[in-house]
Structure formats: structure tokens, C-alpha cells
Amino acid sequence: GPALLFVKTSPGKEEGRRFYACSACRDRKDCNFFQWEDEKVSERRLAAREEYNRNHQPSFTHEQNVDRYKNFMRLPLSKRRFCQECQQLLLPAEWEKHLDHQFLCDISTAQLQSPSQLLCPLENKKTNAQYLFADRSCQFLLNLLVDLGFRRVLSVGTPRLHEMIQSKASQEKDFRVRSLLLDIDFRYSQFYTEDEFCHYNMFNHYFFGGEAARETCRKFLYEENGERVIMITDPPFGGLVEALASSFKKLMAMWKETEKEGHDNKEMPMFWIFPYFFESRILDFFPSFSMMDYQVDYDNHALYKHGKTGRRQSPVRIFTNLTPSMIVLPEEEGYRFCTICQRYVSSGNQHCQICNSCTSKDGRRWKHCVLCKKCVKPSWFHCNNCNCCTLQKHSCEKTYVGCFVCGKAGHKRSTCPSLSCT
Ligand code: SAH
Ligand code: ZN
Ligand code: ZN
Ligand code: ZN
Ligand code: ZN
């Protein structure tokens, strides 16, 4: 799909130089596409690019994969193999080609219903960053949206939620929630039909399946028989917020266009799951959103599982345009309702009388700094040099470029105080 237009700035120069690069891969090692905005590209280079793209297509189309799946389901258990090296379901005729690969045998229907367990998570930090919901968090999200009365879930980069919905729907007669998965991980096309999965890039709103896939999505968003839709997304955290926001606005517009009357001033309901230190960035693009205190947990995210004290500490939250008081957080997991803020908060999150709000972002009790006129992390202190609250250990020298994560000057992304768990 289309590349994104970036700008390279260098200190001292006012205007940066603009260039195109891959929207999905933020690491040049994964995709080396680069082109200055004003660059003339020779015929030869264009041809070479096309050739490269042709050679890097998946070995089967989605349509072929759907057929293969049907055939696979007809096989007896003893003939159902999954090649771990190629991350592919194998039909008996193909075994020979994969003999020296590691493979799994006796793939059960239950395994086919939870592809996120079968496929190995793509943990490449900058490109895919597949961090799967812990069962508890996935269950919580599903219960929440069912309780809120939603019948359709547009799952954007949430394969585990999608598969939980799909398998529940196939097992329980009166469970009537449906889900459509949009994800860049094409391996999922082996397990879902074109009505259940669209190969999609959420950084440039690109449907790889063209107009047909776009139409599938549009149809799904059309709220027939009063079946209300919610979009749930959990993008890679390294992702550019502006690119994501622009795509999500296009999905919202798609929802809005599906019905002529009815949703005049309404927005498509949405959960955007993202770390709390992106709060101000997200609110810049979606002023109607608010951040919930619920800590979303992951199975394979070593970093976020345990803080120094050994307790679970995830910085990942739910941002939503639904009324905060409707998002009921479980008391047994330590959340309570603040009647002044009219929302559920972590039990450690105290209501600050001066800020007149429950100000903690990480679940611990924050303290109010009169000089900064706001609440800050308990481990921070007010530095008179920097004229703000920060970590005790910091260097007061200022750098010109703002931090990539929080946008503040004085530190780089790697040392951003909002990333630290202490
Ligand atoms: N917690 C979720 C998974 C989130 S990980 C769950 O358990 O369901 C991020 C997801 O976004 C992965 O599924 C990954 O394949 C997908 N993804 C990464 N980059 C993407 C892109 N550019 N467009 C669409 N999906 C992308
Ligand atoms: Zn409060
Ligand atoms: Zn305060
Ligand atoms: Zn201060
Ligand atoms: Zn300082």
C-alpha cells in the first residue's frame, strides 16, 4: 500500500527534507523502501521494485487458503499437520516438501479455533510486535462489550479477541456476537474466510484485498437489525499515533456513511488499547476520548508483567469515546467507582482535591506538586533547575529535540520518564 510521507529535520535548519518510507515497518532492516519527495525515480528502479514485490507475495491467496482450510478440516486427525517453520497448515501432498522442517501433528479443531496459540507471535518490536492478551484481559473485554450491548466487533489488530468471539459463537447457541478481524498478519487468512478476516494495514488504511475487502468491512459496519458495532484496536506501541489516528478516522467515517440517518453527530464507539503515556497524543486527535484505569495484561510481554516489586504492572490502558461511567471495572481486581469523577479507577488512585480528579495514571497514589500545579508520580521530586518534577536521578542539561514518546524537551525517548516503571 501507499508509503507515508516523513520529514527529516536537522538541527540548525528550519525546513526538513521530506521523504517516503514504508508505513508498516519502522525499521529499515525490515523494509528498505526510501524515496525523497522530490526524487525522480528511474524506469529501471521502478521495474526492480515491481519485480521485488512480485517475488515477495504470499505463496497462497486468501481465496486459496480458504479452500485449503476446507480440505484440511476434512482430513482425519492423523493427517493434520502444521509446519512451524513455514507457519502453514499442510495438506498431505505437501508433506514431502516440509520433511526437514519442524511440524506439529494431530491438529485438533480446538487448535484451529485458536490460531493465535498455534502461530508463533511475531515479536519483531518495530514491525509486528504481537503481544497477545492474557486470558483474563481478553475475557474482561468481551464481557464488557457484551454487557454494553454490542453485537459486532471490528477487531483491528486484536486476533485473540477475534478468535475468542469466533469460537464462543461456534460453541454457544445464544451467543450472537460477530467479529471481523483486520490485521496485517496474513497468516490468519489460513483460518478465516473473507468475511471474517481482511488483510489490512492500519498505518495507511490499506485493504490488500482491494474493493471487495473494503466492501466486506463496510457491510460489517452497517448496523442491520439494530446490531450495534464497536471497534477495538490494539496497535503496536511503536506505531505513529498520527498515522493510526488518521486510519481510525477513516474507519469511523466508513461507519458513519453506512447509515444515512441515525448517527448524525455520533462517533463509532471505539476502544483504543495503548500505553497511558500516549494519553495526550491520543486526546489531541480524539478529544472525545478518555482513558480508563483498567490495566490490560499480556501473555508474552515480559517487560510489562512484573514491576520491581513483583506485582503485575502493565502501562496499557483503554481509551474510549463511550461515557466513562459505563465502563465498569472489576472490584475483585482492585477497581472502585469515584463518584466525583464518575468513573472507575484503580483502588490506589486517590481523588486529588486540588486537581479535582483521580490523577494517578499507573495505579499508585500520586502526590500533588504545588509548583507544577499538578499531581506527579510518587517517585518524582521537584527540580528547581528544570523547573518541573522529574526523577531524582536525571541530568539537568536540556536537549533541543523533544522526546519521541511524551514530546517534552530535556530527554530522549530511551530515557523518557513516562516509560519508567519505578
Ligand atoms: N493484544 C492483541 C494483539 C495486539 S499485537 C490480541 O491479543 O489480540 C498487535 C497486532 O497488530 C498484531 O496482531 C499485529 O499483527 C497487528 N499489526 C501490526 N502492525 C499492523 C499494521 N500495520 N496493520 C494492521 N495490523 C498490524
Ligand atoms: Zn476522582
Ligand atoms: Zn493534584
Ligand atoms: Zn513539581
Ligand atoms: Zn533537573
Automatic annotation (TrEMBL):
It is found in: Cytoplasm. GO terms for molecular function: nucleic acid binding; rRNA (adenine-N6-)-methyltransferase activity; zinc ion binding. SMART domains: ZnF_C2HC. Signal peptide: none annotated. Residues 1-40 form the GRF-type domain. It comes from the Eukaryota. Keywords: Cytoplasm, Metal-binding, Methyltransferase, S-adenosyl-L-methionine, Transferase, Zinc, Zinc-finger. This is ZCHC4 protein. One of its GO terms (cellular component) is nucleolus. The lineage of its organism: Eukaryota, Metazoa, Chordata, Craniata, Vertebrata. Residues 403-418 form the CCHC-type domain. InterPro entries: Mlase_EEF1AKMT1/ZCCHC4, ZCCHC4, Znf_CCHC, Znf_GRF.
